[in-house]
Structure formats: structure tokens, C-alpha cells
Amino acid sequence: MADVARLAGVSAQTVSRVSNGHPGVVGSTREQVLDAMRRLGYRPNSAARALKYGEFRTIGVILFTLSTVGNSRTLEAIVDHAAHEGYAITLIPVAVPTQDGVLGAFTRLGELAVDAVIVIMEVHLLDAATVTLPLGIPAVVVDSTGGDRYAVVDTDQADGARQAVRHLLDLGHRTVWHVAGPADSYAAEGRARAWRAALTEAGLPVPPMPRGDWSADSGYRAGLELAGEPGCTAVFAANDQMALGLLRAFHEEGRVVPRDVSVVGFDDIPDATSFIPPLTTVHQDFTEVGRRCVERVLRQVHHRRTEAGTTLVPTRLVVRGSTAPPAV
Asked: What backbone torsions phi and psi does residue 215 show, to the nearest 5 degrees?
């Protein structure tokens, strides 16, 4: 580092700031330092840095799939906020959601030298009622019910579902049908439970619940079933992709949205405004979920202690053209 500083004509502190990615270094100075690093073949030694400062400036992320909107957008937000705090991300995918798979991923991350771990659960484990995390490791779990044992950050799934059901009931619909997500999903489970509770509290009948797999195709298949139900005037889909499938099925079966049937989704994906009609949906703040994950796990790192408790990120209903009062 002293050699780099001498060649670049700057202080060792400036070289340190550049190598650690800290802001506040003038662009031309940063380029001088980087050029000197390249010319001298200098690379920061992460092991030496860890010995000096007690941390690797790296957060491990364990997840089971990137195929869902929630997982991919949550991961993107975690990466962005970690970078803002000067931390890199090491990603470990787990092919099969089992307890051994999770523990094996923790072991692998330990070998790769990370300061903390964020686990994006999304689905229940196949071989355990709940995940067990190694003791003493700063960790945050996304989308789980284990707040009594470790730190959990999640969207307020229940309140989002209640807002969707309440909106449709306030429009005058006599009940609300629900197309649920996969049975092994924490999010789908929370949304379905809240849908059922909202109807029960209102003293209204709870219709049969078709179940999809988050895809538009599964929503389409459910929509073909619901189109044949004369009493179905309002549907709450567990995500926007399944809502898209519903819109297609209703269109093909001659059920006009929202004149004949209203549809509400969940997620508020960027394309929701381009559906025909534009989709009323529950907005999830994935950016805030990612920020709070990083904030909570780094608080454990800096305070050198683990913590428990659940942080819920609020949702909000975005009303567009896919909902209306029922036809008289």
C-alpha cells in the first residue's frame, strides 16, 4: 500500500479508501490510485484486512430459487444496499430445500469467509417444520415465521391480502374468490390465511380455493374454472403473474373485466400497468425489504451479537382498472 501511495502521489489513507470502495475520493485521484495498483500488480489482501479490522466486508446469501419475482427483486435490493455499505455479496444456491442443504450452505459460506448470512427462505423445508440456523452467526431470514428464534424481515403479507379483500368487499362484491400460490410457500400461506380470515370476519362465505404455482399458465387454468362459476364476481390472485393468466381466461370465456368480474393481484410488478385492463394490485416494497435485511444483519455484525424478532415491511393497495362494483 505504501508503494502504491508513493507511485500515485497520495497518502496511504487515500489508497485504503480507494481499495475499500469508499466514496469521497475525487475521480481523478481514484484513477491515479487504480492506475498505480495495476502497474504494481497490487491487490488488497482480504485475509489480512480481516485480521486487522475483524471483518471480511462480505455478506453471504442463501436461497432456493431465483425464478420468482419476490426472490429476484429481494436479492437485487440486498446487493444494492450491501454495496452502499461497502460490502460484497457471496451467493450460495441450495438445490433442494432441506435442513441439511441450509447447514451445508452455511458451512460453505464459512469457508468463503463471510461476516454474516441472509437466508431467503420463501418455501418450507421438506424435512423440518422450521429451519434451524447455526448458533452465533449473524443472520437474517427473509419470508419465514421464525422471528422467535432469529431475525426475520418480511413483507406484511397478511395486511396486503386484507387490503385486497377489503377493497373488493367495499365495492359491493358479496364474497371474494382466491387463487392461491404453492402450498409450500410462506408468502402464499400467509396471503391465503388472511383472505380466509377477512371473509370469515365479515360473515361472508369462503369459496373453494384453486391453487397455482405463481405462473401465468396456472392462473389461466384457474381462470377457466372460475369463469364457469356464476357467483364469481371478484378474484384475489396471490401474485400478478397468476392474475395475468386470469385476465386471459376471462377474456376467452367472455367474462369482461371489470364489468363481469374484478381481479386483484399481489406484487405490483412493473408490467402491471400494461395489463388489459391495468391491474389493481398490492404493492410490495422489495427495496425496503432488502435495505432492512442488510441493516439488521450488519447491526449484529457491528454489535457482535445475534438477535431475534420480526420486522414487517408495509404494503399498499394500488387501484387501477381491473376492479369495479359488481354489475346490478
From this structure: -85, 155
pLDDT (mean) for 47-52: 56
* First-to-final CA distance of the chain: 77
Give residue 224's identity as a one-letter amino acid code: L
Say if residues 322 and 277 touch (Cβ distance below 8 Å): yes
Pairing mode, strands 116-120 and 139-142: parallel
Residue 212 pLDDT exceeds 90: yes
pLDDT classification of 47: cutoffs 50, 70, 90: low
Residue matched to cell numbers 432492512? 292
Torsion of CA 318, 319, 320, 323, to 10 degrees: 130
Nearest Cα neighbor of 244 from 224, 272, 208, 267 is: 272
Q: How far is CA 133 from CA 107, 121, 254, in A?
A: 11, 12, 51
Residues in the chain: 328
Distance of CA 24 to the CA centre of its chain: 31
List pLDDT tens digits, range 224-247.
999 999 899 999 999 999 999 999
Which residues make Cβ contacts (< 8 Å) with residue 181, sequence separation at least 6? 187, 188, 191, 192, 211, 212, 213, 214, 238, 239, 242
pTM over 0.85: no
The one-character DSSP state at 301 is H
The three cell numbers locating residue 112: 468463503
**Which string of DSSP letters, residue by residue, matches 80-104?**
HHHHHTT-EEEEEE-SS--HHHHHH
Cβ burial of 44 (10 Å; 0-12, 13-18, 19+) is middle
Q: How far is CA 252 from CA 40, 176, 218, 239, 272, in A?
A: 67, 21, 15, 21, 20
Average predicted confidence (pLDDT) for the chain = 90
Q: Please give the grid coordinates belonging to residue 98.
A: 432441506
